[in-house]
Specification:
Number of domains: 5
Strand content: 25-35%
Radius of gyration: 29 Å
Number of strands: 42
Protein name: Lysyl oxidase homolog
Distance between the termini: 62 Å
InterPro entries: LOX-like_protein, Lysyl_oxidase, Lysyl_oxidase_CS, SRCR, SRCR-like_dom_sf
Helix content: 10-25%
Cofactor: Cu cation
GO molecular function: copper ion binding; protein-lysine 6-oxidase activity
Catalytic activity: L-lysyl-[protein] + O2 + H2O = (S)-2-amino-6-oxohexanoyl-[protein] + H2O2 + NH4(+); N(6)-acetyl-L-lysyl-[protein] + O2 + H2O = acetamide + (S)-2-amino-6-oxohexanoyl-[protein] + H2O2
Oligomer: single chain
Length: about 750
Amino acid sequence: MQPITVWQWSPWGLLPCLLCSLSLGSPSPSTVTEKKAGSQGLRFRLAGFPRKPYEGRVEIQRAGEWGTICDDDFTLQAAHVLCRELGFTEATGWTHSAKYGPGTGRIWLDNLSCSGTEQSVAECTSRGWGNSDCTHDEDAGVICKDQRLPGFSDSNVIEVEHHLQVEEVRLRPAVGWGRRPLPVTEGLVEIKLPDGWSQVCDKGWSAHNSHVVCGMLGFPGEKRVNTAFYRLLAQRQQHFFGLHGVACVGTEAHLSLCSLEFYRANDTTRCPGGAPVVVSCVPGPLYTASTGQKKQPQSKLQGEAHVRLKGGAHPGEGRVEVLKAGTWGTVCDRKWDLLAASVVCRELGFGTAREALTGARMGQGMGAIHLSEVRCSGQEPSLWKCPYKNITAEDCSHNQDAGVRCNLPYTGVETKIRLSGGRSRYEGRVEVRTGGPGHLRWGLICGDDWGTLEAMVACRQLGLGYANHGLQETWYWDSGNITEVVMSGVRCTGTELSLDQCTHHSSHITCKRTGTRFTAGVICSETASDLLLHSALVQETAYIEDRPLHMLYCAAEENCLASSARSANWPYGHRRLLRFSSQIHNLGRADFRPKAGRHSWVWHECHGHYHSMDIFTHYDILTPNGTKVAEGHKASFCLEDTECQEDVSKRYECANFGEQGITVGCWDLYRHDIDCQWIDITDVKPGNYILQVVINPNFEVAESDFTNNAMKCNCKYDGHRIWVHNCHIGDAFSEEANRRFERYPGQTSNQIV
C-alpha cells in the first residue's frame, strides 16, 4: 500500500500539498496507536486502556503477527529503546502486570535485557523470539516522554478496497502554467496511475465530488465553474482519461474513499462525449488575500457560538475550543473522530481533517469542558449542529482534550526560506529568497531586534514547529558563500504565516551591526511549553498589607516598590501592598526552562538566591480605560515544580543550586507572603480598577501560545479594603464578555456577585 499524497501545481514544479493520515481498517486511535516500523522489519504500537497517546502496552508485529513483551527482567533501559522505536525521544517509566490490560496472540519477547543505547530492540538480549513461559497477565508497558524524535511521522496510509489506488492527486491550471499565484484554486483534477498522470472523466461528476477534492486540497468549499469555456479548451488539447464513475457522498476524507472506476488498459473508447473534470475551490479567509479574491463578509448570528484552535505550531492545527455562554472551553475526546474534526476544519476555513487528535496532543486547556461525545455526519456547517452530550465534572478531564490537524492549501512559502550551518535541520542561520523571476537570490536577515516572535514565524514557515530560540548572533554557524544581508527591521506579531507578512524595511537595508556574525538564526522544536496562571487562586488570596519600611530594604533593592518609595522617610512609615498568590501551570508539551543557563544567573545577596530571569511576571493596576496607575514585577528567582499532576514526577528544584524549570503537568507556586509578590498601591486613589498579571511578558522563553499569558480581574478599592473578583485568563471570554468586563462600573458595597 502506498501513501496517498495530494499535489498542487506550483511555479517550481509539482509539490506535495499534504499527506492524509487516516488509517481505515486499523484499530481505533483511542485504543491503539500504530507507529512506523523500526529496524529489522518489525512494527511497533501502543495498545490498551485507559492510557494517553504516549503510553500503553507494547506490541510488536513480527512475521505478520502482533504480540506482546513479558515483564520479566524488564527495565527502564528497555523502555528507552522501545520508546525510540515508537518515535519518542525517551521513556519516563514502564509498567508491569498488564496495567493496560492483557494482550492477545504471541508473547514475542521474555527476559528482555537492554543497555539503553541499542538502535533496535532486536539488538537486546532475550530468550529468543516467541520463547516465553509468561501469560498475558505479565504484559509490559511503557510511558514515553511526549516529545517526538526529529523527522518522525506517523503512518499516513489510507487503505481502500480497490485494486488500483488513487495514490496522488493534483490540481493543475488549464491555462497560465507556472504564472498563477499560490494557492491554485481552479484547474483540472489529475490522478497519478502506474503509467503516469491522467484526467478524470466529468460524466456523472457532482458537486459532492468537488467538495471532497477541495477538502483534500485544503479548501472549505467549492463553486461552479465555467464548463463551456473548459469544454472549448478541451477540444484543442489531448487528454488521457484514467478514472470515471466517481460518486462521493461529500463527507469522505479522500477521493479514494468514494465509489469510482478505473479504465482498463484495453479500453479504446474513454469518456465518450465527456471532458476532463475541472474543479474550482473557495479559499478560507486566511488564504483569500494571497489569491487576490475579495473577502466575503461572514455573517454570524448574534449570540452564535464560535470555534477556535489553540496551541498548534501551524495554521489549521490545535486544541479545539468552543464558545458557550460567553466563555471558551474545550471538547472531550470521547468518540472524537475524523468526521467531527472535518466539520471543525471546514468551519474555520480549512479543508477536511488530516487527523482527529485525542489525549490532549495539542496541550491541555484550563477551565470548562463544554462538549463530550460529539457525533457528526460530516455535513454540518458547525460543530454546534452535531449531536453532543453536556458534560459534568466527573465525565472528562483536560488530559482528554480533543484536537485537529486540517488539510491546508499549498502556498509554497517554505520554498522562500532555509536554514544553513546548523547541527541539524531544526537550527541554523536564516536565509530568505528575494527578487523576481530571473533575479532570484538568497540572502541573510539582519539580527537587530530579532527575537522569539520573529523566530516563531520563521519556524512556522519552515514547517519545523515551534521556536526554541531567536538568535541575534550566529557567528558559530558557517554561512558558506551567502554573505549579503537582504532583509532588516523585521518585526512580527508571531501569528504571520511567513516573514514576508511581517513589517520590515523595504528596499533600504539598515543594520546597526554589520557582518554575517550578527545575522538572524533560529532553533526550532516540535514541542513547546505553555504557561497559564491559575486565576481563581489570585481571587481567593488577594488582600492588603501595610508593611513597615524597615522590612522592605531587600524589596527596594530589587525595585519591587513604587518610585515614590525612594523619597520616603526610611526606615519610618510603611507601604501599602496588594498581595496575592500566583500558581503558574505548564500545560504545554515541553518543559519551561529559563532563557539563560545557570552560569549566567545573578546572585542577590540580600535575599540569598539566584535570579534566572530578570522579569518573569508583570503585575499592574489599570484604570478601566487601560491607564496604568501602579505596577510590580517578579523575578524568577526560583522556577521549580512545587506540585504536579498525579502521574507526573517533579524534575526541577531550586535547593542546592539545582536546575530550574517547570515540568509539563506541574506548577510553580509563588505564595502571597514572599517578597515582591505584590503591587505597591500606596499612591493609588480609591476607585474601580483592573488587576492584570502577565507571565513571560517580554517573550524571553518560547511558548506554544502567548495569548493566554495574561490574567485580569475587576477590583474595587475604597482606600481601606479591596475586593478582587471576576478573575479570568485574558482570552477566556468572548469579545462581548470582555467589553462588559472593561466597562464594569464597580460595586457600592462588598457584596460582590
